[in-house]
Amino acid sequence: MGTSEFHGVFPYLVSPVDAAGEVMTDVLARLCDDLIAAGVHGLAPLGSTGEFAYLSWPQKRRVVETVVKAARGRVPVVAGVASTTTADAAQQAREMERLGCDGILATLEAYFPVPDEGVYAYFKAVAEAVSLPVVLYTNPNFQRFDLSLPVIERLSQVPNIGYLKDASVNTGRLLGIANRVGDRMRIFAASAHIPACVMLIGGVGWMAGPACLVPRQSVELYALCRRGAWVEAMALQRRLWDLNQAFAKYNLAACIKGGLALQGYAVGVPLPPQAPLSPEGAEEVRRALAAVGAL
Description:
The chain is of the alpha/beta class. The chain has a single domain (about 10-230), classed as TIM Barrel (Alpha-Beta Barrel), CATH 3.20.20.
C-alpha cells in the first residue's frame, strides 16, 4: 500500500456542468474549499454522484484538475477511474496520477457480463499502471459485474490495492471481506450502508454523496465512532439517516445537486438523459437537511 493512509469522510463530489457542456470550475472549487473547511478527510471526484458514466474524457479531466487545484494538498484527492476496457482504464489512471491525485477509485463498466478472471485482470492492470494507492469500488446494484470475495482476496495481494469501497446494502458482506483480507485492505462504507455500523466492524470511514450536504455532521459522526462513543454516534446516525433514505430513493446526482442548490451552490442539474430532482424530491431533501441543521 502507498504511504498515505486514507480514512474518514470522503464526499463523493458532484460534477457541475452547464448547458454548453462546460465544467463550472468556480462552484466546484468553492464546494471543495467549504468541504475542507468543514473538516472532511478527503475528496472523491468522479464517483457515482459525480456522474462518471455521463461525462466525456475532457470533462472528467477538467473536474479532476479543478479538485486537485482546489485541495492544494490539504486533503487527499481520490479520483474515479471507470471504463469498459482494461487499456482505457489503465490510461485514465496514469493521467489521474499525472494530474496530481493521491489515489485511484477504480470501478469497471460492463455492457456484457465479465467473468471473475476478467474482473481480476482489469483491476490488477489499473493498479499496476500507477504508483498510487487504489480503492476498489463495487456497486452491484448498478453494475453488470460483481467483485466476488475470492477475487477481492486475490486483489488484496496486489501491493497498492489497499482499500475497498462497497456500495451493496450488505454489511455482513463487508465483515466477510474483512475476515478474508485481514489488514491487507481497509474498508470504506457507502451511503447504502449505515456508516456507524461499518465503523463498529472495523471500517475506516465512508465515501458517499450525502457527505457533500452534511459534511460537519458526517465528520462529527466519524469522530464519535473513532472515540467508541457508540450511543452518541447512533443518536446522530439516526438523525442523518433520512437523508440517506432520500438519496437512495432518487437519482444520486439529482439528489445531491438538488440539495446543494438549496444550500446556495449553483451546481446545475444532472446530465441528460437523467432527470433533475422532482419538486417532491426537493421537498424531501429540504426537510432532511433542515432536520439536521444543514440549511
